Amino acid sequence: MSLHSxxxxxxxxxxxxxxSQRTTVEEIARAIRARGVAFAFLAARGTSDNAGRYxxxxxxxxxxxxxxxxxxxxxxxxxxxxxxxxxxxVGISQSGMSPDILAVLEEGRHQGCLxxxxxxxxxxxxxxxxxxxLDIQAGPEMxxxxxxxxxxxxxAIAMLSAALSGSEQAWRDLQLLPQWIxxxxxxxxxxxxxxxxxRYMSQCVVLGRGYNYATAFEWALKLKExxxxxxxxxxxxxxxHGPIAMVASGFPVFAVAPQGRVFHSMLEVLRRLRDDLSAxxxxxxxxxxxxxxxxxxxxxxxxxxxxxxxxxxxVPAQLLAYHLTQAKGYxxxxxxxxxxxxxxx
Amino acid sequence: MSLHSxxxxxxxxxxxxxxSQRTTVEEIARAIRARGVAFAFLAARGTSDNAGRYxxxxxxxxxxxxxxxxxxxxxxxxxxxxxxxxxxxVGISQSGMSPDILAVLEEGRHQGCLxxxxxxxxxxxxxxxxxxxLDIQAGPEMxxxxxxxxxxxxxAIAMLSAALSGSEQAWRDLQLLPQWIxxxxxxxxxxxxxxxxxRYMSQCVVLGRGYNYATAFEWALKLKExxxxxxxxxxxxxxxHGPIAMVASGFPVFAVAPQGRVFHSMLEVLRRLRDDLSAxxxxxxxxxxxxxxxxxxxxxxxxxxxxxxxxxxxVPAQLLAYHLTQAKGYxxxxxxxxxxxxxxx
Lengths: 345, 345
What we know:
2 domains; alpha/beta; Rossmann fold; 5-stranded parallel β-sheet; homodimer; globular
């Protein structure tokens, strides 16, 4: 069962990344500063796109770098790609093989932009095309559903943010990540029991905001890939602009709402869902007020800094998706209809 | 029943917009050219966010302007917003009232950027804050679910693209929009019958790509708001990076796939869904090869240019959502849990 063991490999893989790539990351940060980059232009698909959502918030708030998430079809199907003057062009891909992500990096290079590949395959076409390569050091991932490559991509993004900010406190926080994730593993047995509750669930929504907008998307993707549940992710704000109408009494809502600057806006939506709409709530948090609203509370360590909550908060979500896959009697290693490497144009 | 009549008002409203705002739009285009804008930074929620997705593709491919879709919580909850040097900051909002969209425009103004409000409320706080206002001229919209304000926002975006490109052919194409939409109205009765098929549907996915990525999102949003179906939108590329695993035999897939540069990539996915996965397909298209794959084909006029297909292609989707709401016995005017103006922070 490689999926379960790859989830449990994460502390060691993140430690390897922290230990081996800081020099490279500092060099990339120097190149970004030297070039006077105006914005980041980031291309990715699937799990890597969710890592890109984290970069969008983290680099935006810690490093004041605005980000455009690339629409690769503009580079592969339409005649004239956007002008990328003064952009840092970033491709994120576990395999470094998707032709559309490669096309964005090649165009960035063609236009003279600084280019960066974040990948688990430093010999891949994507890596060969880029000025700089951040090797996420996750080791071979055998399960079709990505887990350790996701948290390694998040950590690579967080390391670059720390290097750009020059904050030694940020680097010290990063060192503690592996042990925080170890602590989450103690939830494994109780999550296996909780998963039973959702054996017959066919649809749900997943909410997160700010840094954990990425977590909501990645959690929903694991549920779709592994358990075939139609799990739709939202920011709590977007959710209120229409989709909340779907919620009838008993409708399942999963939420990730750790302490931090967007916590109160998340709590407000959770209260409305519980008190006014009688939704069925599963909440990952380290705040009692949010956990108390949940039918199924999942408690994170209390002291994790907000900016690192996505790297830790996705782990119970991965475990829950794994156990629900088993509860539903599906294959945890090879989901139907998808392969490990998807080569979209 | 204002929803149905507002759908039918669209040709007249678009004609009013075309007739009254071209001078303003040309002036905005001159200001954009004069400022040497490097990228657009666009803030919107809900239906207006879907209009923003159209701008992302259209301004990217016709005007080579890269776009970042803003993450408003970076402006309302996190301490330091991104640096927006050389950005065109755009807010799209029917009501011009949402505090988070306003916060993005205010910050853009504070940083000395060129700012543009696209709104149905030229006296609103959003309009008052912006350097330029594009009044979408849609008239009062009474139904909670937005229809005519969506197509008017798309047209405003398309007019700005035409002005930036200086193409007289583009302006001539735009003049034909109202009559193409009139032709779609002839489908109203058959769509009312088709809607019956989905009376007991509780979930589906909605696919589109390129310019019609926006259509997939807006169609899904109408289904969620009005019929409470969990309808999840995807680009056909993203869909293959994981979510396609959800599709079991008989699973309903709605798609918008008109002729154009991404048509063959859409057709390939539709073939896989039909032939390999036995999905149940509803397809909006003007290509026989796509319509023949569908259990429920919805035919668009043959000769519409690709860049305008989103403005016409959403209309049968609106009608279908309207009739399905009636088939399910819900309120077409006031969906549960949502209001016309949603004021998120």
